[in-house]
Amino acid sequence: MVDSDLSSQMESWVNSIGKVANLSVDEQTKINKAGADVGAKVLQQATKDKHYRKRKTGKDVHLADSILSEANNVNGNKDGSSIYGFDTKKAYIA
Questions:
Q1: In terms of CB atoms within 10 Å, which of 6, 47, 74, 87 comes out highest?
Q2: How many CB atoms within 10 Å of residue 60?
């Protein structure tokens, strides 16, 4: 048998997160884009720490300098998600 106190606490918790869970696409995009920006920064730093050489690259940028974050999904649709990773021109190297 479920403790009624626990049950009421869980119901209260579900109601409180329900307010956050009903975010608009714009709100979701803003939150997820912030996370993607942080992820891109971490990936860029890790790539520089492990694979970066100071050299003249000309037009061809270094792998660590080709990391992007975008406020859309992998298909380019705006659905509240965000992505980050290497530019498609350099992703094959990674």
A1: 47
A2: 10
